[in-house]
Design goal:
It comes from Dictyostelium purpureum (Slime mold). It is a single chain. The protein is of the alpha/beta class. It has two domains: about 10-230, Alpha-Beta Complex (2-enoyl-CoA Hydratase, Chain A, domain 1), CATH 3.90.226; about 235-280. The protein contains eleven helices and nine strands. The strands form two sheets. A six-stranded mixed sheet has the order 1-2-3-4-6-9, sandwiched between helices. Helix 1 (about 50-65) links the parallel strand 2 (about 35-40) and strand 3 (about 70-75).
């Protein structure tokens, strides 16, 4: 599996799809190590379907394998981040082919769900930090997507909903597995069991987002500042720090301490460590070069 997310266990994120002509997403690279992953179908409210998830599978392998990318900002063109699942395009895939046996239909649906899970799980498993910059609607699969991100910021007009519940669907792409650790058990259950809309102020109150900004322009300015601040650090250390935090989410403190001791024993003595010391004494900005 080349270098694609090879620091993970066997999970849905190991799925590989290679795409060269992207229509749902656009990756804008900058010279300072920050890349912007833009959902770019505003006329369709950046809605999600099978092609969308396949593009996500592909684009995150590109991000992972590009050493020049140190941090990613995820945002959407148009009136909002995403309206979630495109039901009109996806319903036939969900309901299956009547000419197939029920067992075959069930297997095909299971495989599709696992592939879709993998596309958003790649955000979480990617060693590069991902900042979600959310404006307007963030519905259904949008919440699956942002809860896989490392940091979430939003504008004051942002609206969040685990809308699947109202559509007689169990949210199945990661929200239910991640949101309790983000907002706490009680509020996570309130969101998931009601499917109601949550405004930006409430999202901030419960920790779904770190900060709320007055509008989309300000949101993107602040997201870019944060991404640049991250990108100035040693990319090797930033990536290993993210992986250490991920590991700590589902392991004991003792297991986490053992892992980070092994990690630092393996990676601490780098050119970046020497550069950090030299730049401190020479009173200049460090120029880090090491990568994972």
């Amino acid at each position: 599996m080349e270098r694609s997310l090879l620091f993970t266990n066997t999970t849905p994120s190991t799925a590989i799809v290679k795409i060269t002509d992207y229509k749902y997403v656009r990756l804008d690279r900058t010279e300072n190590g920050v890349a912007e992953l833009v959902l770019c179908r505003p006329k369709e409210y950046n809605s999600m379907d099978d092609d969308f998830y396949n593009e996500f599978l592909s684009i995150f392998d590109e991000i992972q394998n590009d050493d020049k990318i140190k941090c990613v900002i995820l945002w959407g063109e148009g009136r909002g981040l995403t309206a979630g699942l495109n039901l009109s395009k996806s319903l036939s895939s969900i309901m299956g082919d009547d000419e197939q046996s029920q067992a075959k239909q069930n297997v095909e649906l299971f495989k599709m769900i696992r592939r879709w899970q993998g596309s958003l799980d790649k955000i979480y498993k990617c060693s590069k930090p991902v900042i979600a910059a959310i404006h307007g609607a963030c519905i259904g699969g949008g919440v699956d997507m942002i809860t896989a991100c490392d940091i979430r910021l939003c504008s004051s007009d942002a609206k969040f909903s685990i809308r699947e519940t109202k559509l007689a669907i169990i949210a199945d792409l990661g929200t239910l597995q991640r949101i309790q650790k983000i907002v706490g058990n009680g509020f996570a259950r309130e969101m998931a069991l009601t499917g109601k809309d949550i405004d930006a102020a409430t999202a901030a109150k419960f920790g779904l987002v770190n900060n709320v900004y007055k509008d989309k322009d300000t949101l993107l300015i602040e997201a870019r500042k944060m991404a640049q601040e991250i990108a100035k650090n040693s990319s090797l250390v930033v990536q290993l720090t993210k992986l250490t935090l991920n590991h700590a989410n589902d392991h004991s403190i003792d297991e986490g301490l053992y892992r980070v001791a092994l990690q630092n024993a393996a990676f601490l003595k780098t050119e970046d460590l020497n550069e950090a010391g030299a730049s401190f004494f020479e009173k200049r900005a460090p120029q880090f070069k090491s990568n994972l």
